[in-house]
């Protein structure tokens, strides 16, 4: 099978994976799978112009899983040498002989296997010596601090460049891999006026360094966001419309993905148990999985089991179309894999008629809370109960009135999903879930 990317790293990893599979056969395994990877990166951070950290990362690893009928054993190593590969396979086989049989264990069905491996343009090197990375981080932080004299302190700016190559293979004939990169710039600044201190941040991330936001712009936005929070007030407890800024709205739909994932379904630990075919969202809301977006941060030609990834409508007109399944969870539920071992690949959340531009979105909000930061982990995946600390802005008559902090927003995710009133056109593409700001018609806002 041809691979999408065939640099020397991929070729070497294919040899290692093939060796592991051959060893498993020699030990009598009825089936086997292996994945080998190498990654390397550079991360630097500065604070108030001084270098804080310079880190090089270089990791490698091999994971092997063998099957003796329905008995399964797994082992891993960070040593990719021939002797270590053989020893790792031996350990996996020894473990398998002592495990209980699992009727659902096994490789993917051959018909689900990816036959073509498209090149998704995921690998873009960045010629970034540490001296240049430090310059960029300093430029980013300096641009933020220069926005206003009240920006007198910083939590720092950072620049990171990472590259990864991975190969997966199994005993039914799959052997493929690809390389990918991820580059980022971030800045966190502190604004102060008297005794009032507020922090905020901004960041940019991309596969291709040419697609990163300019470092000075990242710093300026971080500074402007911190300044905007000065003078924050508390609110009295009330019920009010609540809007989630686009970068936070991603989390709302992340809880949905978790609830319809295979393990949550077969363990019966989901607030959306047996939700396929149910109207969970308003009729205007759509969700599509698009695994093959060029340069997409969650794009992949195949999942962690070698299953083909395909375009899919996960929610149509508010109705859940199915679950997010690996081959194992699919067998537990009597279904077929959806090519999601390892998670979703680029979930696009949209309104049927498009989202609202920002001024129209605020007018639709009317009077309520715009949340720009969330704190805590108060989300129960079994019941859907949702309660998190928050800060942001109070909006009156469609205009931002003043910043707010030390509030708690609470509700239940099932009701919150039904109460989505609008989506913004300000889609945030800096992650695996792409969505604009989200307006909920009502939540409990707890304060003073």
In short:
The protein is of the alpha+beta class. The protein has helices at about 10-25, 80-95, 130-145, 215-230, 245-260, 260-265, 325-330, 360-365, 415-420; strands spanning about 30-45, 50-70, 70-75, 155-170, 175-195, 195-205, 240-245, 285-290, 310-315, 320, 345-350, 370-375, 385-395, 400-410, 420-425, 435, 440-445.
Residues in helices, as a percent range:
10-25%
Question: Which structural category do the helix and sheet elements fall into?
Answer: alpha+beta
Low-confidence stretches: 1-6
- The CATH topology of the largest domain: PmbA/TldD fold
Number of strands: 17
Secondary-structure element series: HEEEHHEEEHEHHEEEHEHEEEHEEE
Q: Which second-level CATH architecture of the largest domain applies? A: 2-Layer Sandwich
- Average pLDDT over all residues: 96
Globally, the shape reads globular
Q: What is the CATH C level class of the largest domain, in words?
A: Alpha Beta
């Amino acid at each position: 099978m041809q691979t999408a990317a065939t640099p020397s790293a991929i070729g070497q990893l294919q040899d290692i994976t093939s060796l592991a599979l051959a060893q498993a056969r020699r030990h009598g395994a009825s089936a086997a799978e292996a994945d080998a990877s190498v990654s390397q990166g550079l991360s630097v951070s500065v604070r108030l112009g001084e270098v804080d950290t310079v880190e090089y990362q270089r990791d490698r690893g091999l994971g092997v899983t063998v099957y003796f009928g329905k008995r399964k054993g797994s082992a891993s190593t960070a040593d990719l040498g021939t002797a270590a590969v053989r020893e790792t396979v031996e350990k996996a086989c020894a473990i398998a002989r002592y495990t209980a049989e699992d009727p659902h264990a096994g490789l993917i069905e051959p018909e689900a296997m990816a036959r073509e491996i498209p090149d998704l343009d995921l690998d873009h090197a960045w010629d970034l010596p540490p001296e240049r990375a430090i310059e960029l981080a300093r430029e980013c932080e300096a641009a933020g601090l220069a926005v206003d004299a009240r920006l007198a302190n910083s939590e720092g700016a950072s620049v990171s460049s990472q590259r990864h190559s991975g190969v997966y293979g199994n005993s039914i004939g799959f052997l493929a891999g690809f390389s990918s990169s991820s580059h980022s710039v971030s800045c966190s600044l502190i604004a102060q006026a008297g005794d009032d201190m507020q922090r905020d941040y901004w960041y940019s991330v991309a596969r291709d360094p040419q697609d990163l936001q300019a470092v000075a712009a990242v710093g300026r936005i971080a500074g402007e966001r911190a300044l905007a929070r000065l003078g924050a007030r508390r609110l009295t407890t009330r019920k009010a419309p609540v809007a989630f800024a686009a970068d936070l709205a991603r989390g709302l739909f992340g809880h949905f993905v978790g609830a319809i994932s295979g393990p949550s379904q077969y363990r019966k630990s989901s607030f959306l148990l047996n939700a396929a075919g149910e109207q969970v969202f308003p009729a205007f809301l759509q969700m599509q999985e698009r695994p093959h977006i060029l340069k997409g941060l969650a794009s992949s030609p195949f999942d962690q089991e070698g299953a083909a990834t395909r375009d899919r409508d996960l929610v149509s007109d508010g109705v859940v179309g199915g679950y997010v399944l690996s081959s194992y969870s699919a067998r537990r539920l009597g279904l077929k894999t959806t090519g999601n071992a390892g998670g979703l690949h680029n979930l696009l959340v949209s309104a049927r008629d498009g989202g609202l531009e920002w001024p129209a979105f605020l007018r639709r909000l009317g009077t309520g809370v715009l949340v720009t930061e969330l704190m805590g982990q108060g989300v129960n995946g079994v019941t859907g109960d949702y309660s998190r600390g928050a800060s942001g802005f109070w909006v009156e008559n469609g205009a931002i009135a003043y910043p707010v902090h030390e509030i708690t927003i609470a509700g239940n995710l099932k009701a919150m999903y039904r109460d989505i009133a609008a989506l913004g056109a300000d889609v945030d593409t800096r992650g695996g879930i792409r969505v604009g700001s989200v307006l909920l018609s009502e939540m409990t806002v707890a304060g003073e």
